[in-house]
Write a structure and sequence with these properties.
The protein has helices at about 1-15, 65-70, 75-100, 155-165, 165-190, 195, and strands spanning about 20-30, 35-45, 45-50, 60, 110-120, 125-135, 135-145, 150, 205-210, 215-220, 225-235, 235-240, 240-245, 250, 255-260, 275-280, 285-290, 295-300. By secondary structure, the chain is of the alpha+beta class. It is built from six helices and 18 strands. Helix 2 (about 65-70) crosses helix 3 (about 75-100). Helix content is about 30%, strand content about 35%. The longest helix is centred in the first third of the chain and has 29 residues, at about 75-100. The strands form three sheets. The protein has an eight-stranded antiparallel beta sheet with strand order 4-3-2-1-5-6-7-8. Strands 9, 10, 13, 14, 15 and 18 form a six-stranded mixed beta sheet that branches. A four-stranded antiparallel beta sheet has the order 12-11-16-17. The chain has two domains: about 20-195, MHC class I-like antigen recognition-like (Murine Class I Major Histocompatibility Complex, H2-DB, Chain A, domain 1, 2-Layer Sandwich); about 205-290, Immunoglobulins (Immunoglobulin-like, Sandwich), CATH 2.60.40. Belongs to the MHC class I family.
């Protein structure tokens, strides 16, 4: 079953190219040294725009986005209105109302919203989303299939009912998340193609915390995030005593991932039978790293396993 799962994952990573446009909105109350409102725009998990209630201006983080907004000033003006006027007012009002519903007064309170869309540039499939969190817990999420809001908290039910009954709001969300957002995302992908559609191979290292710890095969600095990594034994994929980690973002827009191999039952003579394979979608040649004690980076020495 594990082998079938990894095979399906490999096919999905290799054939499907998905792009995402995500907006993160954070409103806060009672937080020292944090703006009451923060907004961030991310394209394919890369920060492209930022604003907050203290600076009162939009900071464009990518050169291609700056050029796009210069060519489309009306697009930039729309973001200005959302970021500096509408969203800060709405966040502040919603926090005020939620504090009343939860019977709260002072203290720290944080409202978060994430909305946007994902577009598969091969199948054309589009998935929109809009969800809210309050004080670290899920509060409301939009079901685009039924065009109704899901309320996991009792305090959210009355808001759900009001928003469900607001047909203008329902229609706006549907059009924005399924039509406008994908159109903008496609425009951003084209404008930032040299950056968003680039390919960067990672550096791959073998790591081990202690002599009895699993050996970690760690890849960092790759782009895009459509990658898989696995251990092989005698040239075949190996799944026993293997733990796959998630793909995580780096601060520079690239990604990292790792896969652990437990060698507690493997003799020293058999280490040479294992290697780690990294595959990046769109790249023909894999990066293969042989399991070698001399190449392992450890916490008790720069390389190699001391005392063995």
């Amino acid at each position: 079953m594990k082998k079938l799962f990894l095979l399906l994952l490999f096919c999905q990573v290799s054939s499907s190219v998905k792009h995402s446009l995500k907006y993160f909105v954070t409103g806060s109350s009672g937080v020292t040294n944090l703006p009451e409102f923060v907004g961030a725009l991310m394209v394919d998990e890369i920060l492209t725009g930022y604003c907050d209630s203290n600076k009162k201006q939009i900071e464009l983080k990518q050169d291609w986005m700056k050029r796009l907004f210069e060519d489309k000033p009306q697009h930039f003006e729309r973001y200005m209105g959302e970021c500096l006027n509408y969203q800060p007012v709405m966040s502040k009002a919603m926090i005020y109302n939620l504090k009343r519903r939860f019977n709260q007064s002072g203290g720290v309170h944080i409202l978060q919203e994430m909305f946007g869309c994902v577009w598969d540039d091969e199948t054309g499939e589009v998935h929109g989303f809009n969800q809210y969190g309050y004080n670290g817990e899920d509060f409301l999420s939009l079901d685009l299939l039924t065009l109704t809001w899901i309320a996991p908290k009792p305090q959210a039910v009355i808001i759900k009912q009001r928003w469900d009954a607001d047909k203008a709001r329902v229609r706006f969300n549907e059009v924005y998340l399924t039509q406008i957002c994908p159109e903008w995302l496609k425009m951003y992908v084209v404008a930032g193609s040299s950056s968003l559609q680039r390919t960067e191979l990672p550096s791959v290292s073998l790591l081990q915390k202690t002599p009895s710890s699993p050996v970690t095969c760690h890849a960092t600095g790759f782009y895009p995030d459509r990658a898989i990594m696995f251990w092989r034994k005698d040239g075949e994929e190996f799944h026993e005593d293997v733990d796959h980690g998630e793909i995580l973002p780096n601060h520079d827009g690239t990604f990292q991932m790792s896969v652990d191999l437990n060698l507690s039952s493997v003799t020293a003579e058999d280490w040479r039978r294992y290697d780690c394979v990294f595959h990046l979608s769109g790249v023909e040649d894999d990066i293969v790293t042989r399991l070698d004690k001399a190449e392992i980076r450890t916490n008790w020495g720069k390389t190699g396993i001391r005392g063995c």
